[in-house]
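Job type: complex structure
Entries:
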Amino acid sequence: MDTYGLKEFLTNVKSGLISIEEAAEKIKHLAYQDLGFAKVDLHRNIRKGFPEVVYCAGKTVEQVVAILKVLTSKYKNILATRAVKETFLEVKKEIPIAQYHEVPKLITIQQEKQQLTGCILVVCAGTSDLPVAEEAAITAEMMGNRVERLYDVGVAGIHRLLLNEEKLYAARVIIVVAGMEGALASVVGGLVDKPVIAVPTSVGYGASFNGLAALLCMLNSCASGVTVVNIDNGFGAGYAAALINKLEEK
Amino acid sequence: MDTYGLKEFLTNVKSGLISIEEAAEKIKHLAYQDLGFAKVDLHRNIRKGFPEVVYCAGKTVEQVVAILKVLTSKYKNILATRAVKETFLEVKKEIPIAQYHEVPKLITIQQEKQQLTGCILVVCAGTSDLPVAEEAAITAEMMGNRVERLYDVGVAGIHRLLLNEEKLYAARVIIVVAGMEGALASVVGGLVDKPVIAVPTSVGYGASFNGLAALLCMLNSCASGVTVVNIDNGFGAGYAAALINKLEEK
Amino acid sequence: MDTYGLKEFLTNVKSGLISIEEAAEKIKHLAYQDLGFAKVDLHRNIRKGFPEVVYCAGKTVEQVVAILKVLTSKYKNILATRAVKETFLEVKKEIPIAQYHEVPKLITIQQEKQQLTGCILVVCAGTSDLPVAEEAAITAEMMGNRVERLYDVGVAGIHRLLLNEEKLYAARVIIVVAGMEGALASVVGGLVDKPVIAVPTSVGYGASFNGLAALLCMLNSCASGVTVVNIDNGFGAGYAAALINKLEEK
Amino acid sequence: MDTYGLKEFLTNVKSGLISIEEAAEKIKHLAYQDLGFAKVDLHRNIRKGFPEVVYCAGKTVEQVVAILKVLTSKYKNILATRAVKETFLEVKKEIPIAQYHEVPKLITIQQEKQQLTGCILVVCAGTSDLPVAEEAAITAEMMGNRVERLYDVGVAGIHRLLLNEEKLYAARVIIVVAGMEGALASVVGGLVDKPVIAVPTSVGYGASFNGLAALLCMLNSCASGVTVVNIDNGFGAGYAAALINKLEEK
Amino acid sequence: MDTYGLKEFLTNVKSGLISIEEAAEKIKHLAYQDLGFAKVDLHRNIRKGFPEVVYCAGKTVEQVVAILKVLTSKYKNILATRAVKETFLEVKKEIPIAQYHEVPKLITIQQEKQQLTGCILVVCAGTSDLPVAEEAAITAEMMGNRVERLYDVGVAGIHRLLLNEEKLYAARVIIVVAGMEGALASVVGGLVDKPVIAVPTSVGYGASFNGLAALLCMLNSCASGVTVVNIDNGFGAGYAAALINKLEEK
Amino acid sequence: MDTYGLKEFLTNVKSGLISIEEAAEKIKHLAYQDLGFAKVDLHRNIRKGFPEVVYCAGKTVEQVVAILKVLTSKYKNILATRAVKETFLEVKKEIPIAQYHEVPKLITIQQEKQQLTGCILVVCAGTSDLPVAEEAAITAEMMGNRVERLYDVGVAGIHRLLLNEEKLYAARVIIVVAGMEGALASVVGGLVDKPVIAVPTSVGYGASFNGLAALLCMLNSCASGVTVVNIDNGFGAGYAAALINKLEEK
Amino acid sequence: MDTYGLKEFLTNVKSGLISIEEAAEKIKHLAYQDLGFAKVDLHRNIRKGFPEVVYCAGKTVEQVVAILKVLTSKYKNILATRAVKETFLEVKKEIPIAQYHEVPKLITIQQEKQQLTGCILVVCAGTSDLPVAEEAAITAEMMGNRVERLYDVGVAGIHRLLLNEEKLYAARVIIVVAGMEGALASVVGGLVDKPVIAVPTSVGYGASFNGLAALLCMLNSCASGVTVVNIDNGFGAGYAAALINKLEEK
Amino acid sequence: MDTYGLKEFLTNVKSGLISIEEAAEKIKHLAYQDLGFAKVDLHRNIRKGFPEVVYCAGKTVEQVVAILKVLTSKYKNILATRAVKETFLEVKKEIPIAQYHEVPKLITIQQEKQQLTGCILVVCAGTSDLPVAEEAAITAEMMGNRVERLYDVGVAGIHRLLLNEEKLYAARVIIVVAGMEGALASVVGGLVDKPVIAVPTSVGYGASFNGLAALLCMLNSCASGVTVVNIDNGFGAGYAAALINKLEEK
């Protein structure tokens, strides 16, 4: 139910076309659908502008399929993250339109083509950071944003970044994905006057402590305007960038 | 030197009004002013849209005064953070227009009144979080943004937040400041469809580990669209929120 | 041996019906049964009101079977935690009445049906937290407590919790199970005037550090009346809730 | 406003004695009183059964005094924690009935003598743990609970505990306060069949890491029925124990 | 070469029976045998009273076999730790007298039966701690010490320990092996007037952080006379206990 | 009361010279003396061979004085650790025989001269480690052990240690005190065949993390026979070394 | 392109033999080759004196092969680190001259034999440290340096090091590789007057925390002139040692 | 005693001019001078090429003065680190030639002017890093190296670094001093083909954890050739750089 439907519904309640009892029941269904093991959040599209995104890790294949079927019946475009291939194959049986993105392990279901607007730039430091970078990029695209990519431009060879400065200037929001020491976020943050969202990755070994080094580095960035999400949380960065990029449309 | 001056300067170089030698010298001064102990970044206003902000911790009073004098001679509005009162009193002697904000320990120098636009909401969980919340709010105001405040609405009494929901919906960007367990960021993030910047504070004791608990809580927020800055970094949150709020003006 | 048998035994010692030598030997057996690799605590039912619960992790299948056989011969209702399916199948051969609960990996042996009293509510934040939530719920049920469940009501969609507030008010004790940032414990704790036991889970990734984020969040809860158990320790929460719920019966 | 007053108020709204407009205004005041820097939670007594407790750390003396004055005008018995003596002396000027407890740094305001019921036992390991133990004990007493104390019975001389076992058996709820390795919580937890709330303290040095060692020890207790609160959080333990001890009265 | 052989050798050097050149060469071989990938320490028996113990983790099977063959050719009794079964089977082919201890994963080679003297008591908290406890016990036995075992006497059922107090008093040195919260070390340490060596184990989950909780607990023991070795280091505890137990023989 | 007095007392109970009622009362006093804030452990001398040692940190001056007066009235030789000078001056007023050791901040009360036996060697790495080294040395001396000192022989100039090897060979037990990286413990442990007790100190800065680096280093010592106590715990090392050195006398 | 080719190119640009447009295009190719998923840094040989080294972990086999083919077409000698055998076998198909080093998991491609100069000594503490030590040694050799090895000389048997002191004195730079407590770096650093690069390894268990103990130990070395690289980073140590050893040739 | 004197001394021993007894005594004095609380390492100049440097933290003023007097009587140029002004003033009384460097808190004693050779560049990120940068620079100068400084060129304004690239290329060794996220080390390391020694500083707040963030960042540098010293260890970096810079002179 989108915002328009919501208003119509409320008008009908007011006018008495829908009784209080019917309305109460409907609101419950509007709010969530109870599958026993899960209360699928059907209200989220109203609050957040995008339906609930399914986090597949720790859920059984059956649970993922059931939740996606509910969501697909209500909304146009659906996203599921951290899905292994086996999960996708089962989803595919029930929802043939579903697509799998192998590198970022995403399932996307697009029932309506959407116009991509604005510009989000996803920058990453090394080839090993690609899964996280692509999770960010596709998340943003699924939410209707135009996305540019600038990959493998880590500070060990900083000229690769400087030779592409015009891409930095052309974007409205920038996502920087980097593992190891994560210094790329500070360098980019020092060059631009737009919001930079930094994503530390678990790429590295030893004292990278599975991404802790990059996380701390990014949190302590001496460049202003840099905010940070959880280690390997490409989805979160893509989502936040989308909210920012879409601001002007409101 | 603002963007306009920069263009004029470049036109003059092109036309020969300014010689290559003069231009080279001028560019160096445009880039930074070397005080020996500091290279004041005079180029930052061009790159970032706001002059260098002075971080006073770890600098001597003399160093702060010298840097502020250089900046004041070049720019209209200047900000210095983490300044103790003694530092301010010395600054005041040299720059009488300087003002001190006791709670967030900020020095502001405003040589020109500016129009405040857009809307940034600063939410904080408890009275003890005020210094950080005010650092965020005043930073954003100094950068030309309209700021609303909603203080002391932590989740221990969540009705205080819910009774003020309309403030959440009226804002373009929201900054959430919270110590202890920092749960407020997730609750706010779950209610709105706009960017939320979370600032963990060092308020708490024991296993709060000086803000680490709140930091981890916020990084792991189950609500989408939440990004995080360093512990007690009100300035960073205010700056990032300003960049987001100003996006539409570009 | 229950409390009644204990008193009879002591009366017999006093009256001389049982000699000192016989009594000493009997007390040793009353205290524990020595299997060489284990001293099965047969005194625990007297001290704690429930027989020793077998923690299967790190024990061989043979050890688990042997300990369960001793316990089954002495007590009505037995619980074993963290048992893989292979272990259960071997237990089943020796104790056919044993049952397996796949999600929480529990083995239960019920030789007598018991009356369930009071009310413990188990709340969990997401579907991935189910194994821990069920460990808590079944532990409490095995100890004779009535248990209600309210699942998948995390703060990312807080209306799912608020629409079920009456369940919170109906309970005597509440167990809150949550991973990621664990904010749900504070929100529930702020709404009710009864004991809340928080269980952090290892659900999450990156800076959740296998449940550390949720643990710290819960320990720093700004809501009063919240106490915490170890990460993923559904059993411990169920046990403590049972002791609280049963208090009035004493 | 207590529960009785609330019902009367609602009856008056229903009957029309109070208009909708008046009621709306009154509800806002019922919910919190806005002091600008703080929203004093006036609804908490209804939700939690005890008015908001003032955490003084990080608040100015003026803020503490203002909040306490609001609370004193509405409720009978008020508690403020982590108050230094200077704060108390200012409070005393405005609220002469206020009392100071030097060891646990508590301010109590008792405008009505209350009946103490049930039995909470506070056990502590060493003399250095007294401030935290007393914070727990007085919190529970302020909430109307009878409290027993058993101090300085750490496991280095375990006979001191065992010679007082009857105190353990007489209590309904037990709070165990211990620093250094915190082993006392497990030993007590192994002896009794009632809820044990463990409070780690920051007493110790070196690898105690300001209470982290005791905290981890208590979270990993092999004894069942032990739950844990934050380091040095005597208040939280006393509050939770009070909720448990009062359960039967509901 | 034992101490006696060393003295004879030196006498021969002094008397000229062995030339300086021959002696220099012999000393090098006396010190270590160079296998390229390893310098087997042949001097250790002289310095430490027991030949080099082989740590098998991280070594290839071929390396372990080669080192054990060198040691077996020089000394009577040899010990290898952390050996998987596959390694043992290859060792067995070359050194048929070798024996495998499955629980502690030790290989022992005894070419001469030795008299066991003194008394070391190995106490452990739970059945899951057995591998570490047996590593300690067999190490001490291999070094010629009499060893007693008291297993599964953790503080959750402290009567199991107290009913065996006479074993504590009969020992000269006590090794306490415990995981989870490791409280047993403090309880034992408080009861006896002899050296207690505490071994934390990685038994546990969640906030046990693979033994860190037990380690910190033991390091902060309020009982005097407790020293600690690395997590799961049964070998180190057995070795140190052996040095202490053997002191009187020197 | 020493062991002899204990036996006499028990004989008198058996013979009826002391009534059961008198005995029960006496046993309580034998076990501890209750000062309200402290239960002074009077049984410790029997269990541990040395009276309770007073840890002054976190106790008020009045508490320390009261406890020391009880102990002085019962035992010959008393030790108090971590006492600031102000505490000592108050103790001195009540117990004029008390002595203060400024470097290790110890108070000693010797009412009877004792024979020092055996040999404990205290080795330290640098001059900054002296306070901890002296705490170990004087503790051992107070317990009747002969102590040798070998100070400032850290591995940065390892010849200082090697030129004093004969001191290592002459000792029965060795205590190694070192901060920074703590490597000295491994080097000493590799040279001798006697128990080595390692004491990490908080000497250092940055990544020494107040002694954590030295602690971890010592716990991971590749030399066998090294056990470890808490950071800066000279007292614990001295106590454990004393127990070991005294073993042969039993 | 080497430095010579670069100068020729620039001369041609200056003289007009190469047009500005051609030059611009060529410079881009000179800087990096864009494979989509990677921007192979072709400028690194000019900046750093050695072509980009390929870090294989986290890259697909196809990505590694593609990058190595680009590099092999431009440079003589190529190095790839952390390559599993399967990766090598695919590389071998495309680049038959490639060689695999099983212990350190390196792929080397040598298309021109080079003169080895200077002297770098690689010292390691135990046999389990060999993979890291060999990674350092072969990296340095690939960069044209003569390398000596001194393996298995840990401080548990320090005579093995001292008997080889002349090797320490013969080297220009020393790399010390050690796990567990990592004390070897301090001992070597105290003996020599040349740069020592310490490499902590993840060899060990329990409180070694995967190399953290050795890392902290080395960072706190009391010996001067010791610098440190990441845990298990043999490559980084070999690279830095090569830069130092080659300094005189510039 | 320098190397020349050492050879003469040995020749005299060989020729009999110095008796064995005299020589043994002299060697002991050559090795160290025993002040009781310290063994001043007089052999270090021979081993390391520079006399022992006095670390003043944790030493009493009397100890520092005594050690410096011994060193001044034997060597030309002496360095003491981490000296507060009060210490210097006492040193000055005894050694009037001593000088104090207020920013880095160093005492230097130069009894002979020395030729400065080679080139070490000290780069620092911000003004607050100056104390550490100066500690590095003056240490290197005291050891006879020419030092250049490039201060306040952090990555937030990277043009300040890039405009000074020629300084990077002119140096033989580079020291990079940076706090907060420490990204500068990676950027510099990516630009040059010479050894880079990175010094993390404790400048920063919150999640910088007193320099831990910068330390981890530098250890994980994706640029090759970067080695790291302890947090705030300017001395160690200066010392290591000096050893490298002086290599060619040997």
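Summary: Chain C has a mean pLDDT of 89. Chains C and H do not touch (no CB pair under 8 Å).
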